[in-house]
Amino acid sequence: MRMSSYFLPTLKETPSEAQIVSHRLMLRAGMIRQTSAGIYAWLPLGWKVLQKVSQIVREEQDRAGAQELLMPTIQSADLWKQSGRYEAYGKEMLRITDRHDREMLFGPTNEEMITDIFKTFVKSYKDLPRNLYHIQWKFRDEVRPRFGVMRGREFLMKDNYSFDLDAEGARLSYRKMFLAYLRTFARMGIKAIPMRADTGPIGGDLSHEFIILADTGESQVFCDKAWLDMDVLADNPDANGDLKDFFAKYTGIYAATEEMHDAEKAPADLVTARGIEVGHIFYFGTKYSAPMGAVVTGPDGQPVTVEMGSYGIGVSRVVAALIEASHDDAGIIWPDQVAPFKVALINLKADDEACRSTCDGLYARLQEAGVDVIYDDRNERPGAKFADMDLIGIPWQLTIGPRGLKAGTVELKRRATGEKLELPLEEALAKVTA
RNA sequence: CGGAGUGUAGCUCAGCCUGGUAGAGCGCUGCUUUCGGGAGGCAGAGGCCGGAGGUUCGAAUCCUCUCACUCCGACCA
Length: 434
Prior knowledge:
alpha+beta, RNA-binding, BirA Bifunctional Protein, domain 2, 434 residues, 23 strands, 9-stranded mixed sheet
């Protein structure tokens, strides 16, 4: 992408409404634009990151055997009356009526709808288990939206729902998602720690919140220091096995939110930190399948009410949480896996023939190599270019200027460490395409 | 939902108390001088002062209503 034609409205000054660093940086980096309280438009750069995050979520869901579909944002109130939640959900649910005065709502979650779809088509135990997910916009009419997309009213969420014949199967489905979630966040370059959670009004007896540690987190959390060295990608348990040992290992290490924290059970090596909830998984049995009649015929010919679980990742919130966990005074520091672009190609002197032709050539070669590159070909001053690239957090900055060209080198800077190397062009190219 | 605020240029804000031709910095456009971490100069564009009523010869400014947004708290499957 050439920066001269990219819609990237970066700001030098911080808009006054932004209180937390991720909100400030998302506004300054031209990622989002607020359109109403708690409602945001995602501009090209923000949308690109949101899609990268979504894609990792998607790949790990697929790997865990879940299947993607897409349910609508607008739902009929009838389904919610069946489950009893139409009244119970309260004012957080945005209720609307259509031209025929039919009661509708903008979905805050999809348990009712997925259960309805499931029960329509699945009639036999032979078709179990099933795990279905979608990545769709949700709306919860928060009393007081704040912190940008961290606590917005409209947000992008991955939610999925598992259906099993019995509790044993449901617990296996739960463990599979537990692994998928650990892998998902690990692949994004962040550490999300599962913490035993209160199941709350949704019911059920097994639930974990996935919490990212960040100084600016919204709640206090406690965990064993051992968590900091856990590496689920290195552990790589067999996703097709029963996952019992893996689950025991990872739930055996102390981690608790403030509500669940018990000082007496806490280990000596306790880390106290702030945390941001980015995912939440539940096993809730027949809470929805019973009232809504999600019943299959069992092996003995008798009806069985299916056992369900639901699993959510706040995809848009993850984007903000990543920034909370990874930034400095100059701006965002994207982990490589979710960065909107891998390489920033900076032409320091746009009207210099040698610089321009070298950059154009490099740009073409990077594109051919399949590297996601943003090319600053603008006729701006060097300082502005460096500042913009630091702000939007591109992992590698490849700087071409007249001084270096004369010496036969280019500058390669790593955003995360600030480390700068003067390298021959081919060497730098090899490094960023590796 | 309680409490406190704010709406003036794209952004950050001044002007309001004490009514009298709409302001600054940054950004934007052109020229110029520059050019390795958001330089300088000159010239310019850009506003129904959130909206509606009222008071007044005259309202960004005073009064009433209204809408939007922000912050603190409570809330947050």
